Amino acid sequence: MASEQRRKAAMQRKLQQLRSVTNSSAVNKASIIVDATRYIEELKQKVEGLDSQLGTAESSSTSQDKLPMVTVETLEKGFLINVFSERNCPGMLVAILDAFEELGLDVLDARVSCEDTFHLEAVGGESQENESIDAQVVKQAVLQAINNMD
Fold first, then answer.
1. In what order do the strands lie in the sheet with 78-85?
2. Element spanning 135, H or E
3. Does the model's pTM come out above 0.85?
4. Tens digit of pLDDT for each residue in 55-72?
5. Given 58, 72, 86, 140, which residue has the most CB atoms within 10 angstroms?
6. Cα angle at 74 between 40 and 55, to 5 degrees?
7. Which run of H or of E encompasses 96?
8. Which residues pair with 71 in a beta bridge?
9. Nearest CA-CA partner of 139 in 92, 80, 87
């Protein structure tokens, strides 16, 4: 009897953990598992997308002097922008920040490393008076700003 209760308690903890990891609001086992399945599928799609971006970046880097890899993810109110370059170029950060300003994006949070390589992770929020823009527009503006540096 006690082992059955321990087993049930362990199962409840694991379901609660699964519910927490997948941001599920479901309460019964079947719904939690369905939500987890959807979450796993979303993660698979994100991985495939990143793999294809990485493959595209790697194949184009051999012919285009190793352009930086730029990813832009849409958030609830803004964007998560990642820029990575194997080489650090003077002025790259300024050019990217100028592109943000031209788009009307406010930098809400940013982390930058400019030592040997260049890596920027920034959260940009759209200004209130600005028209709605999408992630592709942000990505193109950042890439254009980097290309115009040369």
1. 69-75, 78-85, 118-126, 105-113
2. helix 135-147
3. no
4. 766 655 444 456 789 999
5. 72
6. 65
7. helix 92-103
8. 82
9. 80
Q: What is the pLDDT of residues 14-44, one digit of tens each?
A: 999 988 888 889 889 899 889 889 988 888 8
DSSP state of 130: S
Residue where the block lists tokens 């080489």: 87
Residue tagged 């031209």 (tokens):
102
Q: Which residue has the tokens 């990642």?
A: 82
Per-residue tokens: 71: 């990813």
Tokens 């990505």: give the residue.
Answer: 139
Q: Are 84 and 117 in contact (CB under 8 A)?
A: yes
Residues 6 or more apart in contact with residue 68 via CB below 8 angstroms: 83, 84, 85, 92, 118, 143, 146
* Distance between CA atoms of residues 71 and 10, nearest Å: 40
